[in-house]
Q: What sequence folds into this?
């Protein structure tokens, strides 16, 4: 096996800092709160924390509107807090990944303040300014991701500026080399402070069509969908020149050693997604793969998408899987708490780097937020369509107390009624969702077959998904093979692996070869009540059950 990097072996845990732990009683989480709870990440068994933005920001989009790339917003603490946090993380063997938001700044960023001063401003071309269309009105039909035209008129200069998100988030002009240089300097600022990598926000948005052509209508659009779905974003995103920018980012990271990771946030169909590995793998290390979030939860569809993804990967491209994030319904809300356990087993036994969203390791549900308390600007812009992202951003639950141990003040979002879903109680409960995550992460650490091994789907029907992970072990030429069987249905199911597995040529040697007739050993069930030898014959799964099996 070639040498592997930490981000290939490891598991990433996303922290939304507003909601992790509030150390100063203002109802909003902060960096010191994260530092105090790094032990939770260690106990869970993850390897890296990706922290959503904590930079100075007016918070129009809760930190995704950056007013200074090289600082810490006072809500979250100070640069010294950050230095303490990263030092402590490294002491504990954890890596820190920051959120880099290069597509747009805040409209309060000094660069934009200067840019909007007039057509002659030295920073005019740092953003995307265009004259009105010939007959008046916005330069083209591009729509903001948060609804309405993506062009904002500036009466003083008579021009429009482009914003793919809020009007408070003007897009930078990445065709301007001065912008590229300034943003590389921002990366270096954090690399100097020891960060281990970046998750790059909406990386496929950075370069837009040079001619600003209209986007074509989306034939699949129907009433009730968000505005952004009206057009296919073929000219406003995913342009070939993006790869030159990504190369610059990679070079900037590489100057700090070979193991800093570059992750791209990309929502594109799989064949375009994998293009972001770049030619000769010079693109991002990990184009975030959100398919498990977006797909409907049925065994046939999930098995197919796993297979298609594996087939689509370029040679040497390292896979990754994401089950939740701060922009999407929580997994327990999407598929229910029983299937969320099956999904956790899937996430942590597939080939590729897993990303866990904070709270999903507890089975936290989406917390309904009444319209009057809505915080998310997208929900406020397009109310009633179900686009709001507050429900998945609610405070982490540390204990069963009314404020969940998150704050002594008033939490910025409601905590929700399910008191039993919390770190303290779930740590004490050997069958909890938290215990399941610990067990699976422990298994992943202990068995290279799971973290690094090859992947092979086993044909199944109905509600079942099954696959093998295999890895050569040391000198002796033996091979470790683990088999995963998942029941995505709510009925008992059965899979005759005996013939299938042992009759399979590649399995007929090494450790497996000796196990003929020796049956199966269950390493872990999602129900956490079944370990050890299995009765001879087909494997039986209970409703909503997943198993990791070894032979013999
Ligand atoms: C993607 C982020 O994940 C999302 O939360 C944010 O609103 C947009 N980018 C704009 O930065």
A:
């Amino acid at each position: 096996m070639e040498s592997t990097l930490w981000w290939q072996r490891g598991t990433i845990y996303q922290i939304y800092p507003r909601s992790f732990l509030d150390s100063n009683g203002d109802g909003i989480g902060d960096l010191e709160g994260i530092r105090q709870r790094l032990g939770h990440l260690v106990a869970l068994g993850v390897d890296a924390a990706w922290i959503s933005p904590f930079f100075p920001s007016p918070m129009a989009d809760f930190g995704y509107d950056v007013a200074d790339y090289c600082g810490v917003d006072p809500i979250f603490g100070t640069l010294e807090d950050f230095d303490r946090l990263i030092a402590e993380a490294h002491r504990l063997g954890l890596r820190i990944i920051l959120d880099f938001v290069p597509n747009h700044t805040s409209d309060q960023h000094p660069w934009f303040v200067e840019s909007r001063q007039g057509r002659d401003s030295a920073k005019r071309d740092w953003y995307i300014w265009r004259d009105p269309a010939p007959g008046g009105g916005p330069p083209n039909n591009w729509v903001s991701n948060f609804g309405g035209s993506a062009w904002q008129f500036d009466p003083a200069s008579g021009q429009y500026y482009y914003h793919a998100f809020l009007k408070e988030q003007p897009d930078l002009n990445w065709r301007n080399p001065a912008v590229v240089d300034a943003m590389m300097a921002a990366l270096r600022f954090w690399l100097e402070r020891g960060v281990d990598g970046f998750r790059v926000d909406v990386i496929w948005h950075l370069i837009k069509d040079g001619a600003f052509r209209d986007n074509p209508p989306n034939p699949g659009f129907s009433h009730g969908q968000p505005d952004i779905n009206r057009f296919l974003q073929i000219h406003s995103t995913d342009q070939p020149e993006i790869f030159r920018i990504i190369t610059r980012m990679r070079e900037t990271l590489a100057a700090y050693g070979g193991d800093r990771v570059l992750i791209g946030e990309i929502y594109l169909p799989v064949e375009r997604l994998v293009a972001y590995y770049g030619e000769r793998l010079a693109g991002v290390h990990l184009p975030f793969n959100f398919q498990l979030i977006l797909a409907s939860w049925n065994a046939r569809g999930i098995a197919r998408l796993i297979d298609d993804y594996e087939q689509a990967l370029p040679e040497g491209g390292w896979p990754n899987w994401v089950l939740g994030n701060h922009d999407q319904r929580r997994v327990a809300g999407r598929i229910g708490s029983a299937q969320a356990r099956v999904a956790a087993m899937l996430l942590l036994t597939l080939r590729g780097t897993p990303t866990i969203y904070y709270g999903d390791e507890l089975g936290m549900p989406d917390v309904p937020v009444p319209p009057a308390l809505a915080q998310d600007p997208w929900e406020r812009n397009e109310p009633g369509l179900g686009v709001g992202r507050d429900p998945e951003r609610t405070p982490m639950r540390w204990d069963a107390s009314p404020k969940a141990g998150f704050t002594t003040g008033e939490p910025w979002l409601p905590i929700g009624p399910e008191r039993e879903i919390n770190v303290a109680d779930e740590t004490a409960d050997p069958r909890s969702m938290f215990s399941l995550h610990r067990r699976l992460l422990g298994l992943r650490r202990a068995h290279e077959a799971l973290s690094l091994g090859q992947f092979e789907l086993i044909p199944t029907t109905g509600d079942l998904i099954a696959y093998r992970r295999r890895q050569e072990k040391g000198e002796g030429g033996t091979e470790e093979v683990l088999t995963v069987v998942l029941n995505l249905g709510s009925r008992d199911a059965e899979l005759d692996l005996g013939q299938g597995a042992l009759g399979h040529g590649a399995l007929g040697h090494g450790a497996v070869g000796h196990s003929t007739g020796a049956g199966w050993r269950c390493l872990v069930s999602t129900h956490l009540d079944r370990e050890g030898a299995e009765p001879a014959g087909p494997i039986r799964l209970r409703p909503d059950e997943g198993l990791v099996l070894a032979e013999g």
Q: What stands out?
A: Residues 499-516 have pLDDT under 50 and may be disordered. Residues 110-162 form a domain with the Oligo-1,6-glucosidase; domain 2 fold (CATH 3.90.400.10).
